[in-house]
User: Fold this.
Amino acid sequence: MPPRLLDWFPILRWSGSYGRQHAAGDATAAAVVTLLLIPQSLAYALLAGMPAVTGLYASMLPLVIYALMGSSPVLAAGPAALRSIMSLAAVGGVVATGSADFIAASLLLAVLVGAMLLVMGLLRMGFIAGFLSAPVLSGFVTASGLLIVMSQLPHLLGTPLRSENLWVFVQSLWWQRGEMHGLTGAVGLAALLGLWASRHFLQRLLRRLGLPQGAADLLVKAAPLLILVGFIAIAQTRDWANQGVAVVGTVPQGLPGLALGSLLGASASTLQALLLPALLIAMLTFVEQISIAQTFAARRRERVDSDAEMRAMGAANLAAGLTGAHAVGASFSRSAVLHDAGARTPAAGLLTAVLLGITALFFTPWLHHLPLAVLAATILMALGSLLDFGSFGRTWRYSRADFAAQALTFAVTLLVDLVSGLMVGVIASLALHIWRSSRPHIAVVGNVPGTEHYRNVLRHEVLTHPHILGLRVDESLFFANARYLEDRIGAELASRPDVRHVVLQCTAVNEIDASALESLRSIHQRLQETGVQLHLSEVKGPVMDRLKRSDFLEQLSGRVFLTHHQAVQSLLEETPPHA
Amino acid sequence: MPPRLLDWFPILRWSGSYGRQHAAGDATAAAVVTLLLIPQSLAYALLAGMPAVTGLYASMLPLVIYALMGSSPVLAAGPAALRSIMSLAAVGGVVATGSADFIAASLLLAVLVGAMLLVMGLLRMGFIAGFLSAPVLSGFVTASGLLIVMSQLPHLLGTPLRSENLWVFVQSLWWQRGEMHGLTGAVGLAALLGLWASRHFLQRLLRRLGLPQGAADLLVKAAPLLILVGFIAIAQTRDWANQGVAVVGTVPQGLPGLALGSLLGASASTLQALLLPALLIAMLTFVEQISIAQTFAARRRERVDSDAEMRAMGAANLAAGLTGAHAVGASFSRSAVLHDAGARTPAAGLLTAVLLGITALFFTPWLHHLPLAVLAATILMALGSLLDFGSFGRTWRYSRADFAAQALTFAVTLLVDLVSGLMVGVIASLALHIWRSSRPHIAVVGNVPGTEHYRNVLRHEVLTHPHILGLRVDESLFFANARYLEDRIGAELASRPDVRHVVLQCTAVNEIDASALESLRSIHQRLQETGVQLHLSEVKGPVMDRLKRSDFLEQLSGRVFLTHHQAVQSLLEETPPHA
Assistant:
């Protein structure tokens, strides 16, 4: 088999040796994760502004594709909270929520995210994850969590509130106060309380009641689904739908078809407007996925192939868009469930998809009476991991500049919208980095008497000569700091009228990019015009190789010395101090 | 006098000791530069899509303001080719060229550029110039030069051609071929030939005719103005305007008034649309200005105060917008003239402004019959310094990646528009830098037998221990490369099942930003879960100080060692190899 094919489809590596010992773990894990995935998938579809059934669609073919192409046995692909609200924000910014165009645009967004991830995986562009710095990411995720809370409160309490951003939310809270549907609110809060109690007390209660560990564990994991089923039963018998409680309504039965018609209906202007949001969602999806994959891979001392992960998630998103679902990603909570339940291979994901398919085929009519308030409660209970307010304090103590980027991202996400927030965060990180890099440490150096060493004149007792200026550059030279070198040399020369030779000690220069080369050219030319020679010393091999490809060394008025000491010695001999 | 005031208005430093010896040089330089500035200012206004007279306005108050606030005696502020075509592109993208709104928006753009430069100067944000890498800048400038040629050909030849970008230009060339106004074309080509000949042969000719050096120099410098006057005279006597030759037309006489009414008429949407172009023009203006200022300051062994320069050019642009002119910048050609003619202080600029004021007061009626084709020829002759095709070859040989950024910028500028081109260039430079930084050099190190030195296992014969993994990180850790460290450690551990201790040798780590700290936390936690301890060695002082402000060191399972050798020795004693 060509190695290329094995790289693309890791399933070809493990499926050959698949046996009963794997199947047991995978089947258990798939069953447990399905219990969690059914309510989550419906809820996250709601969060993305999509029909509930599309949550099930997002949990079928995308999971199959990820199982074929992904490298991690426990990474749970499918609908995820952050992706859903970003999809809502991105698509809602282009077409009206709730329209047929909205669904088409949501699918298109998933296809775009998928295509971008696939291409970036092909081009090995994992480095783009680097654009999202940790403080920016945490500021963004926390603000997104708050926005999710705001978006779910109307469903939870039966209040008509708008929640595009904090500003709109507060305004609509002001105008709509008092208007709340009592029964919906009671149902929502009861569901929330039930989910909370089942997470925090059910385990202990069941153990006290004498249930064995395994059974108690399974019951706790099934609790969200059981609560959901319980509310469906009550809603149906009491006919809540006719008392004004919003319910899911008719859910089409069966497996998803190809949504090509819907996709092709999207306009070119919609496509264009979704490009930037799709890029941001692709970056975010990859960062989240890799961080989850690495966490679990480390526990198993496995390696994560980030290119394969990108391709797999890209293909999964393509599959999501083509089968009528919104963008998908990796879920930390479900990955943890897969890991704890003993998933051994990606076959667990395949099996989960089959179980979801069975649900879609046979159980969707039952979902008709499911109150939206219960789904909202499901979403709110899953938010814990998104809200990390402690991170602000940690960043503030560690670095004020990083904190500024974090706070800015948080504020823009909350007050404007998610796409702008993430965009501003990326720009802030980059600006911060360029600002930090723009003033590299450059020391004037002199000779430590009796040695061949050269040290900073400000920190050591060293010998200097009025005709020779030795400068040690303590960083690689690139476009952000190249101009500062020009500035600095200009300033040093303005205060040292006797200097005839400038020697740049390049010990710590790992790279000189084309901008820095231009700066060196300018420096050289300006020095030459005032009769000063420019020399280099201790240039590293790779840097020297590259310089030889330009004509800089041929034009250089001075020389390149192996050591700084040699430079100073030769120049002193040629230009004696008393000259 | 408060030092703050002296910093803001360098004129207060030099005006006290101003004397006759300065006045002579300044007056000569001002006279010579005025000869060049009159035709250039009219031509650059035309290039910006503005009435010709606004070129004179751009050469009055802005020059006065720069003389008061600027630090360079020879920097020539005022209308400049690149700024003018960028102004046209930016404003033309928002409102229709030639409308009253167009003028209002051009002034608004100048005010925005001015305000941004002023604020950036106040906040000492010179680092933003670093966003424009040298290859991107040169790709952009060369493409701009070609766009200027395209924009002037219609005026030069009397052909109606559109020139927003190369694509539009080629299309309109195809449809409009043949339609050319014969007389206009003849005038334009004659002017171009005249200007070219005066630059290349006039000096030699005059010397052969026996003129003294000084007189010949002055005549050569006056030649563009003389040619202009000559064409005005012929156009008037032959009444070219009635034969279809486009002329400047009625030019209002007198000094510019305050253009507040025009400025306040601009709509909020225009303001918003101009923000990004204004930022890019501000960056470009600053980069150009600093590079010109540094070139001449070096020849005089003077220092350039980049914050003062930013403030001065900001205020000059505010003055331009408020007195009815488009955005201004620094001109290399006129700065060179000031330098060569012996300008001693910024008073030369003041005097130039006065001479331009006299022109505006008394000579504008004469401009009525000036053919636009002659101004177009003036612009084309000034383009030489913008077109630098050789730079592509140099960049290609030096660095393929830098070349890619340069070519992309060139192509987008030429095929789409100037604003997109520069924007894409900035993004490409940043992406390139993040990509380069994303994989720092990390070496597995071992002990050089018999010493306390540790070296790369791939390059040296060194001793390692199966329980201890020593890694030397050869760069500062920040958001772009933090994740790679996680990757790399994960990969090393996956292939070394016996490792119990990971020691990071931080000799070359000058900084650990908040993202890298988060990565270290993740690495630490993942290692801890598999029973591996993380240690640090040779952490630099400032890095250590910062780490102490987080709780990372308290949570660290391992220790921080002064030297890598100490780390390995202690760990070997605690965990003997045979354990």
Summary: The CA atoms of residues 5 and 206 of chain B lie 49 Å apart.
